[in-house]
Amino acid sequence: MTRVVLLPGLDGGGELLAEFAAALAPEFTATVVSYPRDVGLDYAALTALVCERLPRDEPFALVAESFSGPVAIMLAASRPEGLLGVVLCASFATAPRPRLRAFTGLLRALPFRWFPTGLLMPLLMGRWSSRAWSRRVHDAVRAVQPAVLRRRLLDVGTVDVSALVAEINCPLLYLQASRDRLVPYEAWVTIRDRSRHAVCIEIEGPHFLLQARPEECAAAIKR
Q1: E strands of the chain, at which residues?
Q2: pLDDT, tens only, 154-165
Q3: Cβ(73)–Cβ(93) below 8 Å
Q4: What digits encode the pLDDT tens for the residues 36-77?
Q5: The AB hydrolase-1 domain covers which part of the protein (predicted)?
Q6: What is 148-176 written as a DSSP string?
Q7: CB 44 within 8 A of CB 189
Q8: What phi and psi values does residue 199 have, to the nearest 5 degrees?
Q9: d(Cα 69, Cα 7) in Å, to the nearest integer?
Q10: What domains appear along the chain, each with residue ranges and CATH number?
């Protein structure tokens, strides 16, 4: 049985991946790597953290959701022993909305005590949104220190690991959310143009694809 290492989205906790992790069974055993909620680590530091938690005695695959895509790319480019493949879900190698880089100064200056999950859920989950999911996302985000969320958002706005995509020598699967209002189609194009191994599967769903369509995402990975 192959181990799948799951790397979470912006919240970093992994609680929102429970249904997807269950859907990977019985073919895969899932392990979620959680990020610190009280320390603002940049992408390089998060990559080092995940590297320390990779399996040492069994083959594994990486599945990275949204924010964690650059972490998976940096790890895969280093070619760790045992890595069988990488899955990027609604993710990116470069800042998904480059025009927003102009607002990074504003993001640094503004107080960051409240993250409007209720207002953002229609954007993140579209018609798949529900009160239950809004509450779960709200709780997951509230568990993270505001300064940590700010750091992660700033890093998303400036990241560029696209040059490393060419160094990945294992299969690379990109799961494209057909209704993604946050990460554009161009994010996949950037990866496709730099990879010899990348394949894209489009799944009907919102940016929170692993949450809205866990069975379908798991089936695509199994295939």
Answers
A1: 2-7, 28-32, 60-65, 83-89, 172-177, 198-203
A2: 999 999 999 999
A3: yes
A4: 999 999 999 999 999 999 999 999 999 999 999 999 999 999
A5: 4-220
A6: HHHHHHHHHHH-B-HHHHTT--S-EEEEE
A7: no
A8: -130, 140
A9: 8
A10: 2-222 (3.40.50.1820)
Spell out the long-range contacts of 125-134 with Cβ–Cβ below 8 A and sequence spacing 24 or more: 125/206, 125/207, 125/208, 125/211, 125/212, 126/179, 126/181, 126/206, 127/206, 128/205, 128/206, 128/208, 128/211, 128/212, 128/213, 129/206, 133/208, 133/211
The reply to whether omega before 26 is within 30° of 0 (cis) is yes
Question: Whole-prediction pTM value?
Answer: 0.91
pLDDT (tens digit, 0 to 9) for every residue of the chain, 223 residues total?
A: 789 999 999 999 999 999 999 999 999 999 999 999 999 999 999 999 999 999 999 999 999 999 999 999 999 999 999 999 999 999 999 999 765 554 454 455 555 555 566 666 777 787 888 888 888 888 898 899 988 998 998 999 999 999 999 999 999 999 999 999 999 999 999 999 999 889 999 999 999 999 999 999 999 999 9
By CB atoms closer than 10 A (0-12, 13-18, 19+), residue 7 is buried
CA atoms within 13 A on the CB side of 150: 16
Q: How many residues does the chain have?
A: 223
Which amino acid is present at 122?
Answer: P
Phi, psi of 78, deg, nearest 5: -80, -5
Q: Are strands 83-89 and 60-65 parallel, antiparallel or unpaired?
A: parallel
SS3 content of the chain, % helix, strand, coil (to 5): 50, 15, 35
